Every structure is written in structure tokens, then in C-alpha cells.
């Protein structure tokens, strides 16, 4: 039983790390531009498929490095051509635009690569269990958690140490003032979007290694990411990270005791959090978006 | 022609079109079921627009109440009693109750936060339907039941065997629903909703209990959405979890926007465009979602006011 619980908690942690990675990207975009990016799951899947195409030439590591970057570049283009036109309008419109894009992504991927699941090869030494006792701890699972941790630390370093990151955080609080101080807000929003999409692409490559590729692979992750953001609190990236891990572990534990409720449990958690603290665990007071 | 008269003329034309739809639908390449779908999804989109266009609250999770209604009627007919009226009643009640509970949790939230939370709660019902195999049929859906003729006392309304009779039953319920909706919007309560949409802070200063108004509006809107879900399930004699999925919620919102969300009838027009387009495109290609998606993107970028919005702007 202990093993089962350990296994599921660890599994939940991995899943939670995924949610967090995806939710952090979504959160970055929401905080600065009030855009709920429904196409985030589409970008995630796209990142995975790009990695799938690159892997035969560059190997796993090359694909892991390059695919998220290429996905982010596409994100920059999408922001520049479409989403930029909708800033300052009712947030409904950007929401519907990305909703339409989500359809386009999913069906486009299905058209190109087919609906069936494709395998994504991970180096053999990563697939071996680390020990006989904890058989579920394959290298790849540990590697994923480590990589997510590195990505998150990198993100927080960017946001606190670089000029771009500091401007993004300032813009989250008061974009107008940032603009008046001479920062090119258009470029700022563009790069911020790209950064969020980079995280989606990275999550996509990692998910491909664990579960294989499917056009709908982002679908299963986007709703929990919303929940992670809501539980953690809108406007707080640390909250988003915490929310993601929390719901991941909760879902993992639910798998042990009531397997059929493992998906519904996170929404129940969200309801409890909203009841007790409508702005979320670490949400800013009076964050109006 | 005065504005009042032209409104009257358009209303008459609209009802003539709706009343005669089953007779010319086949001639233009459609079928009666398609006409019924337009009405049902039109009602759902109008219910979403009750919040979106007239209260100014963006609910992105109305498929939840649509689906609750659909499962409600399906389960009554399958497990409890083969009575269509009872099924309709229970379906609407289930959806409305669901909205009352969720609504109470979220009335304090606004804007995109409200939208996100409504979507997320919608997904909760989706997963319950998806996972609770023994009762809901899981991913395969709930089948093995069908709509039953209604005994009116004077005679039988044979909706079971005739799609056309079913269309007219849906039309009657649709007419009653939109009538009630219009009356509510004209009442002092409806005017207060408009006031909240225009300037929530000022409404609050005037002493209007904004949260309570939004909560009630949310419940009213969800009641109509669940009626639409009930009618949709009866149309197909089938329910599956997709009628609870967030993409359907998004489709409702898009229908409202395509038609024009500041107008009362806009969402119905949007639903008609959506249903016909989907039917047409999916008969040519499996990848109809791709083209629907492109259509959404183009609408948002170039015609955000919707069909009726554009017509109105031309006139003025």
C-alpha cells in the first residue's frame, strides 16, 4: 500500500509539474495581456510534433532544445498577426480568437500527422528504472521533474534578473506607466507571448516522451491548467506553480482511493478554494482583469 | 417606415420562416432534423446571450447546463418512467439547480476570471459523465431510450415517429422561452441587468444588489440552456459527454457573436449560420473543425459585431 501511495504521489507530482509548466505559460500571457489562450494546448501538441519531426536528424536532445524554440517563434508570429489586433477590446474577442485557433491547430495536426498515436523515442538509458524497489521511478520521470524544475527556476530568474523580465512584471501591474516610461509595449507583449508559448512547447516535447503524440494531447492538459491558475490565484506565478503541483498530487492520491474521481477531484478543490478564498491561494487582492 | 413598424415586419417574417421551415427545408437541401437543430442551438445561444449581451457577464461554461438537461431527460426516460413531459421537467430542474450551486460560488468574480471559472466548472460535469460508466454510459453515451408520444388528453402528440411534429413541439417551447426572455428583459429586473452591464460600479452605488442580480440572471439563463439541452437529447434520442464539453460552450458563445450579441435575435441567426455551415462542410471533408476554426478567427478579426450588428450599422 505504501508503495502504491508513493507511486501515485510521485506520478501526481509529475502530472502536476506538467500542469504547472503549461499553467505558467498561460498565466504569463493572462497577467500581461488579459488573453486566455485556448490555443495553448494546440501549441503544446505542435511543439511535440515538431520534436517528432526533428528527432531523426537531431536526436532526442537536439529536438528537446530546438522544438520549443520553433514553437515559440510561431507563437510570436500568431501574436503579431492576430492577437495584437485585439488588445484593448473586450477580452471576449481574444478568447474567441484563440478558441478558433485551437480548432485549427487540432484539426490541422490531425490532417498532417493523422489521428493515430505516434511513438516518440527517448534515449534508452532514461527509460530504465532507477532502483528495483522503487520500480516506477524510471529515469525519464525523474528527468522530467528535474527539467521542469530547471525551466521554472530559469523562468523566475528571467523575470527577476533580466530587463525583459522586470519589464514584464512591471507591465503586469501597470502597463500604461511602463509604456510612458519609454518601453516598447508592443515588443514586450510579443516577447511575453513567445515566452509563454515556449513553455507550452517544452511541455509538449516532455509529454510526447511520456505518452506519445496525439493531436488532442493538449486538450487533456489545458483544463487542469486553468484550475491550477484559479487555485493558485490569478496574478501570482508562484501561486500558479503551487496550484499545479497541488492539484497534480491531489489527483494522484485520488487515483489510490477513488480512481474514477481522479479528474473530478481537482474541480472540487477549485470549488473549495473559491468558497474559502475567491482570489485563490496566493492571488493578489483586487486583481481585476 | 418607423423603427417600430420595421421591427414588427421583421418579427412577422421571422415567425413565418420558423413556422414554415419543415416545408421548404428539404427543397433547399436540408432536412427537418437540421431545422430542429437550428432552433435548439439557437435557444442555447440566446440563453448564453442573456448573460453575455444583456448582463455583460461572460459565461464560457453553458454546455454544462445544456448537458445536465440532456442527461436529466435521458436518465428519466431510460431508468424512471417513459414520460417525455416528466423528463423535460426534471432535465430543466437538474440543469437549473446545477447553475444555482455553481452560480453562488462565482458571482463575485468578473471578466476573464469569471469566464475561466465557468469553463472549469463545466469540465467537472463532463468528467463525471465521462467516468460514471454504470449510470451515464461513459464515453459511449446514454442510449437505449427514446422520446415518447405525449398524451394531451384530447389526443396524442406523436413526437416519437414524426420529426415534423417534434419540430413543432420544439418551436412551441422555443416561442414560450423567448417570450419569457423578452418579458424579463423588459421588466424592471431586466433593465437593472442592462444597467449592470453598462456600469456596474454606478449600479452598485445606486444600491442595486449586483451579485444577487447576476446570480439570478445566471440561473435564468441556465434554465433556458438546460431546456435546449433537453430538446437536443430528445431530438437525437441519445446523449454523450460531448454535450457537456467546453468546446460546445465556446460554440454557443461564437453563435451569439456571429449573429450579433447586442441584439435579441442575433444568436438565433448565428446558430442557423453555424448549423448550416457545419452540416455543409462536414459533408465534404472530415476536417470540418479546421474550417469552422478559420471561420471563427475571421469573424473575430473582421466582423466582431456579427451579422445583425453590421446590418444595423448600415441602417443608421
Alpha plus pi helix count of chain B: 14
- How would you sum up the major sheet of chain B? 2 strands, antiparallel
Classify the secondary structure makeup of chain A into a structural class.
mainly alpha
Rg from Cα of chain A: 19 Å
What characteristic shape of chain A results from the CA principal axes?
Answer: globular
List the main descriptive attributes of the protein structure presented here.
heterodimer; A: about 290 residues; mainly alpha; 10 helices; about 75% helix; B: about 325 residues; two-stranded antiparallel sheet; 14 helices; 2 strands; globular
Q: Could you please describe the fold and organization of this structure?
A:
The complex is a heterodimer of chains A (about 290) and B (about 325). By secondary structure, chain A is mostly helical. Chain A has helices spanning about 1-35, 40-80, 90-115, 125, 140-160, 165-180, 185-210, 220-230, 235-255, 265-275. The mean pLDDT of chain A is about 90. Chain B is mainly alpha-helical. In chain B, helix 3 packs antiparallel against helix 4. Chain B has a two-stranded antiparallel ribbon with strand order 1-2. Chain B is globular and about 55 Å long. The chains are: A mainly alpha (about 290), B mainly alpha (about 325). The interface of A and B includes residues 86 and 261 of A.
Task: Set down the secondary structure blueprint.
The complex is a heterodimer of chains A (289) and B (316).
Chain A: H1 2-33, H2 40-81, H3 91-113, H4 124-127, H5 139-161, H6 163-180, H7 185-211, H8 219-232, H9 237-257, H10 264-276
Helix pairs in contact in A: 1-5, 1-7, 1-8, 1-9, 2-3, 2-7, 5-6, 5-7, 6-7, 8-9, 8-10, 9-10
Chain B: H1 3-24, H2 32-52, H3 63-80, H4 84-106, H5 111-131, H6 133-136, E1 150-151, E2 156-157, H7 163-186, H8 188-198, H9 200-205, H10 210-236, H11 246-259, H12 266-284, H13 288-302, H14 306-315
Antiparallel strand pairs in B: 1-2
Helix pairs in contact in B: 2-7, 2-10, 2-11, 2-12, 3-4, 3-5, 3-10, 4-10, 7-8, 8-10, 11-12, 11-14, 12-13
Amino acid at each position: 500500500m505504501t508503495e502504491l501511495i508513493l507511486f501515485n504521489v510521485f506520478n501526481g507530482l509529475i502530472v502536476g509539474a506538467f500542469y504547472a509548466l503549461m499553467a505558467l505559460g498561460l498565466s504569463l500571457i493572462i497577467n500581461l495581456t488579459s488573453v486566455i489562450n485556448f490555443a495553448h494546448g494546440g501549441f503544446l501538441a505542435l511543439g511535440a510534433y515538431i520534436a517528432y519531426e526533428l528527432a531523426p536528424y537531431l536526436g532526442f536532445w537536439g529536438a528537446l532544445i530546438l522544438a520549443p524554440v520553433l514553437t515559440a517563434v510561431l507563437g510570436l508570429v500568431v501574436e503579431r498577426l492576430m492577437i495584437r489586433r485585439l488588445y484593448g477590446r473586450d477580452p471576449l474577442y481574444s478568447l474567441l480568437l484563440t478558441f478558433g485557433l485551437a480548432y485549427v491547430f487540432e484539426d490541422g495536426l490531425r490532417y498532417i500527422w493523422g489521428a493515430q498515436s505516434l511513438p516518440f523515442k527517448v534515449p534508452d538509458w532514461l527509460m530504465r528504472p532507477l532502483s528495483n524497489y522503487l520500480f516506477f521511478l524510471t529515469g525519464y520521470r525523474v528527468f522530467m521533474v528535474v527539467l521542469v524544475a530547471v525551466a521554472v527556476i530559469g523562468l523566475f530568474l528571467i523575470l527577476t534578473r533580466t530587463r525583459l523580465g522586470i519589464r514584464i512584471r512591471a507591465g503586469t501591474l501597470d502597463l500604461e506607466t511602463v509604456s510612458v516610461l519609454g518601453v516598447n509595449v508592443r515588443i514586450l507583449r510579443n516577447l511575453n507571448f513567445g515566452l509563454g508559448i515556449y513553455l507550452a512547447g517544452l511541455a509538449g516535447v516532455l509529454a510526447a516522451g511520456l505518452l506519445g503524440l496525439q493531436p488532442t494531447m493538449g486538450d487533456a492538459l489545458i483544463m487542469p491548467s486553468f484550475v491550477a491558475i484559479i487555485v493558485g490565484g490569478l496574478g501570482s506565478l508562484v501561486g500558479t506553480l503551487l496550484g499545479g503541483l497541488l492539484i497534480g498530487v491531489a489527483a494522484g492520491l485520488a487515483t489510490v482511493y477513488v480512481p474514477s474521481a481522479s479528474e473530478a477531484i481537482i474541480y472540487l478543490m477549485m470549488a473549495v478554494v473559491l468558497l474559502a478564498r475567491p482570489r485563490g491561494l496566493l492571488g493578489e487582492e483586487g486583481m481585476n482583469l | 417606415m418607423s423603427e417600430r413598424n420595421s421591427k414588427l415586419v421583421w418579427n412577422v417574417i421571422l415567425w413565418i420562416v420558423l413556422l414554415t421551415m419543415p416545408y421548404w427545408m428539404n427543397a433547399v437541401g436540408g432536412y427537418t432534423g437540421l431545422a430542429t437543430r437550428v432552433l435548439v442551438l439557437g435557444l442555447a445561444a440566446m440563453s448564453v446571450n442573456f448573460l453575455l449581451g444583456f448582463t455583460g457577464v461572460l459565461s464560457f461554461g453553458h454546455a454544462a447546463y445544456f448537458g445536465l438537461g440532456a442527461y436529466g431527460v435521458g436518465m428519466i426516460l431510460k431508468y424512471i418512467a417513459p414520460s417525455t413531459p416528466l423528463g423535460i421537467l426534471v432535465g430543466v430542474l437538474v440543469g437549473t439547480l446545477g447553475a444555482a450551486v455553481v452560480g453562488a460560488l462565482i458571482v463575485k468574480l468578473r471578466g476573464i476570471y469569471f469566464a475561466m471559472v465557468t469553463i472549469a466548472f463545466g469540465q467537472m460535469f463532463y468528467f463525471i459523465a465521462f467516468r460514471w460508466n454504470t449510470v451515464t454510459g461513459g464515453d459511449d453515451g446514454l442510449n437505449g431510450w427514446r422520446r415518447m408520444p405525449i398524451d394531451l388528453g384530447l389526443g396524442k402528440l406523436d413526437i416519437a415517429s414524426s420529426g415534423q411534429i417534434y419540430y413543432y413541439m420544439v418551436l412551441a417551447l422555443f416561442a414560450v422561452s423567448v417570450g419569457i426572455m423578452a418579458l424579463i428583459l423588459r421588466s424592471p429586473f431586466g433593465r437593472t441587468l442592462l444597467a449592470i452591464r453598462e456600469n456596474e460600479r454606478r449600479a452598485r452605488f445606486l444600491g442595486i444588489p449586483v451579485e444577487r442580480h447576476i446570480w439570478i440572471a445566471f440561473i435564468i439563463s441556465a434554465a433556458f440552456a438546460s431546456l435546449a439541452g433537453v430538446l437536443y437529447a430528445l431530438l437525437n434520442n441519445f446523449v454523450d459527454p460531448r454535450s457537456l464539453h467546453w468546446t460546445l460552450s465556446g460554440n454557443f458563445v461564437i453563435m451569439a457573436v456571429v449573429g450579433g450579441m447586442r441584439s435579441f435575435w442575433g444568436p438565433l441567426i448565428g446558430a442557423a449560420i453555424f448549423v448550416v455551415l457545419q452540416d455543409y462542410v462536414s459533408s465534404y471533408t472530415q476536417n470540418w473543425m479546421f474550417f469552422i476554426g478559420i471561420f471563427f478567427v475571421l469573424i473575430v478579426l473582421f466582423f466582431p459585431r456579427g451579422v445583425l450588428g453590421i446590418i444595423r450599422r448600415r441602417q443608421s
